[in-house]
Amino acid sequence: LKKVLRRHLISTLVAASFVTIILASAIVAWSLYLRSVAASNAFQAERDKAEQRGVELRRSLYFAEMNLAGQASNEPGGIDRVEELVNRWPYGPDSLDLRGWEWFYLRSLSNREVAVVSLDELVWCVAISPSGEQILTGGASRLTGLWDVGGKPSHTRLATGRLPVRSVDWSNDGQWFAAGSTDRSVTVWDAQQRRVLHDLNHGGPVLTVAFHPSKPWLATGGNGGGCKVWNVHSGTLVHNIDQAGVLNSIRWSPAGQRIAFAGRESGIFHVCHLTIGADDVMAVEQRFQVAGHASGVFSVEWSPDGNRIASCDAGGSVKVWDASQGAECLPLWTSEYSSEVWNLRWSPNGDELVVVSEDGSVRILDAVNGRLKEDLLGHTSAVWGCCWSRDGQRVVTAGHDGTVRIWNSKHRYTNIHAFSESQTGFTSLDWSPDGSTLVTGGTHGEVMLWDADSGEKVKAFQGHEGE
């Protein structure tokens, strides 16, 4: 072996060198491989950490924005902000779906699956006849519109005065209707013959008219002229109740033995006890002022039993008064809000009040103690109109945001339907007598009928030339 090694020493050394080099290369390569794997693992770990941080940041952003949306949902008119925040987190197959129950809850607060109606003029007032077959409207065109609901829509245009019509009303038996204009005139029509019975001069711009529940009397009020009561048969003045300033609201008590009227500037409202003699001669037996509002009273409403009066004002106060004692109204409770309260209505059973405000809020109050029962979210700007269906199961609200909303009072006032007009607003509304149809008028000159169960528009009546 030694001889062989000596004989092949050089070859052996060369072979040994190659083996050493190969082993060294393998060791180096393995070392580099291990380093590469370690680096790759470290990179992947850092990448995973970065992705996890991204997910955590995105999740934090999601919950932060859902929290903001939740706060916005509690603010009057905040539904637009809720929609903006919720719509930033749509579902996508290629993106992480972070939506939880809070997303679906917040999205449910804004019922925006609505029909968009193109309108362009303003209707100030609307009232449905007791039979539900005709609709009376008034607006800035100085024409009063009379619409037949049944069959093919038909429209009769009735000349009123020279200036806008701000208030319309039907008598309880549907025999007459009246329209009050800012040119000081009140026009009374025979509903069946559609002819003018009387043109009455109130003495100041007329803002409110109201028929007596059983007598042939019409009360009128506005900017000056006091509260006047007219005999519809003769067109003569039955009684003039002197009152300075602007009257926003006149309401007869359910039995018709009392009348209440509210002033915009005085911060008080008046209640008059009436005596009705032979030949329907009316006299004011007793009159008293109800003070307690710090600013102008927008609306007064008698409870269905006639024992209480609700009032609201420009300062955001809602008050309920005991009117059962006769001599005076005693305050029962007061609720204060930060925005003007423009309108309110009693539920048919007298247990609740719906209250609407300039800031877009709609509230259901316990009529016994004023406790807030529900805060109805949906309107994004001022709400002008509200009323209950006759069975008390639904509340309807309308406002400047261009939507009319129906709420189900039997299911915690869930928003059943929203009727939308994108540019202008609704100013007035009313139910049909059977509660199946809703009539709306607004800042667009078109009167619409809606199916209250399905939310579908039934008919649209056009014809107003102005607001």
Key traits:
single chain; 467 residues; alpha+beta; Methylamine Dehydrogenase, Chain H; four-stranded antiparallel beta sheet; 32 strands; 19% helix
What can be said about this structure in brief?
The protein has helices at residues 2-7, 9-73, 79-86, 101-109, and strands at residues 123-128, 134-139, 143-148, 154-159, 165-170, 176-181, 185-190, 195-201, 206-211, 217-222, 227-231, 237-241, 247-252, 258-263, 268-276, 282-291, 297-302, 308-313, 317-322, 330-336, 341-346, 352-357, 362-366, 372-376, 383-388, 394-399, 403-408, 414-420, 426-431, 437-442, 447-451, 457-461. With 467 residues, it is an alpha+beta fold.
Q: What this model shows, in words?
A:
The chain is α+β, with helices and mostly antiparallel strands and 467 residues long. The protein folds into two domains: 2-90 and 98-109; 123-461, Methylamine Dehydrogenase, Chain H (7 Propeller), CATH 2.130.10.10. The chain is 19% helix and 42% strand. The strands form eight sheets. A four-stranded antiparallel β-sheet has the order 1-2-3-4, with no helix packed on it. Helix 2 runs antiparallel to helix 3. Mean pLDDT is 76; it is low at 111-121, 151-155, 419-425, 443-447 and 461-467.
Proportion in helices: 10-25%
Shape: rod-shaped
For the largest beta-sheet, the strand count, sense and barrel status come to: 4 strands, antiparallel
Portion in strands: 35-45%
How far the N terminus sits from the C terminus, by CA atoms, comes to: 123 Å
Number of helices: 4
The radius of gyration computed from the alpha-carbon positions, rounded to a whole number of angstroms, is 36 Å
CATH topology type of the largest domain:
Methylamine Dehydrogenase, Chain H
CATH architecture of the largest domain: 7 Propeller
**Average pLDDT reading:** 76
| Strands side by side in the biggest sheet | 1-2-3-4
Q: How many separate structural domains?
A: 2
- CATH homologous superfamily annotation of the largest domain: YVTN repeat-like/Quinoprotein amine dehydrogenase
CATH class of the largest domain: Mainly Beta
Sequence stretches where pLDDT stays below 50 over 5 or more residues: 111-121, 151-155, 419-425, 443-447, 461-467
Number of strand segments: 32
| Quaternary organisation of the protein chains | single chain
Structural class: alpha+beta
